[in-house]
């Protein structure tokens, strides 16, 4: 067994490239949302299991240790988005913010691009979802609450595990999981639909019954309006980097993973019981897909300001 008192090395410094973009929205097929929006390209969180590493590899960009050391900042994304949603052809279909990079990674603290995009989508009455590991999202409770008064808004804080050793060694650039749960509570208390994405669950590392129960209970206690789960997905690009880290930190699991992941997806004999267990826990613990009730609705003048 590894020495669980060890901590992961500090993440390297990230360089930021300020570059304008030609388009803000990207069409998506086969998903619950029609469009994706990513104010940044690359992610300083540098999670070892990030599926975006696979896309980076296919684009001949760094997908291993160098991934996340350079992040592109789309400096004009707010203006470009505003132009796109003002078109007469715009159908106000759902937009996913953060499908390919975290919209609340550290750069957002300075650039505020995600905040600007939220305001644009709200003005245009475009529904949107956000997925993030960044507690920084609570800074934007004001604009998220205003948006929620006009369109369907759903926020998902990713909390794969509360195991500190697993977190430190797989999500080196992220805030602690319990900070994310505190963000869920603050969002829900402000009337924003906010839940937990328990993803990815790592077989043999974060799938023990007590580990899963700990996350589900913590999500319930944070007031999460929903919880969903996914197991680890290992496509080429992600696979190599993740398995290298696995062999370094959990060498006893390396051979097992090679067997479980003959392809990109976890063997169904392992995947399905994990999903079923989480679904059962959600029902037993009492997380229902419900609407958050605002403590206080935005005053009329703030709602009018969105017009």
Question: Can you give a write-up of this model?
Answer:
- The protein has a seven-stranded mixed beta sheet with strand order 2-3-6-7-8-9-10.
- It has helices at 52-58, 77-85, 108-111, 113-123, 141-148, 164-170, 177-189, 209-221, 238-249, 251-260, 268-285, 300-304, and strands at 15-19, 25-27, 35-37, 40-41, 70-74, 95-97, 128-132, 153-158, 194-201, 227-231.
- With 307 residues, the chain is an alpha/beta fold.
- The protein has a single domain, classed as pyruvate-formate lyase- activating enzyme (Alpha-Beta Horseshoe), CATH 3.80.30.
- The termini are far apart.
- α8 runs parallel beside α11 and α9 runs antiparallel to α10.
Q: Which helices and strands appear, and what pairs or packs with what?
A:
Layout: E1 15-19, E2 25-27, E3 35-37, E4 40-41, H1 52-58, E5 70-74, H2 77-85, E6 95-97, H3 108-111, H4 113-123, E7 128-132, H5 141-148, E8 153-158, H6 164-170, H7 177-189, E9 194-201, H8 209-221, E10 227-231, H9 238-249, H10 251-260, H11 268-285, H12 300-304
Parallel strand pairs: 1-5, 3-6, 6-7, 7-8, 8-9, 9-10
Antiparallel strand pairs: 2-3, 4-5
Question: Which features characterize this protein?
Answer:
307 residues; alpha/beta; pyruvate-formate lyase- activating enzyme; 7-stranded mixed β-sheet; 3-stranded mixed β-sheet; disordered C terminus
Strand content bin: 5-15%
Poorly predicted regions are 5-10, 292-307
CATH class: Alpha Beta
- Given the helix and strand composition, which structural class is it? alpha/beta
- What best-fitting shape do the alpha-carbon axes yield? globular
**How many DSSP H or I helices?**
12
> What level of helicity do the residues show?
25-40%
Mean pLDDT: 89
Radius of gyration: 19 Å
Could you tell me the CATH topology label.
pyruvate-formate lyase- activating enzyme
N-to-C CA distance: 58 Å
Strand order of the largest sheet: 2-3-6-7-8-9-10
- Number-wise, the strands total 10
Q: How would you sum up the major sheet?
A: 7 strands, mixed
- Provide the succession of SSEs: EEEEHEHEHHEHEHHEHEHHHH
Q: How many domains comprise the coordinates?
A: 1
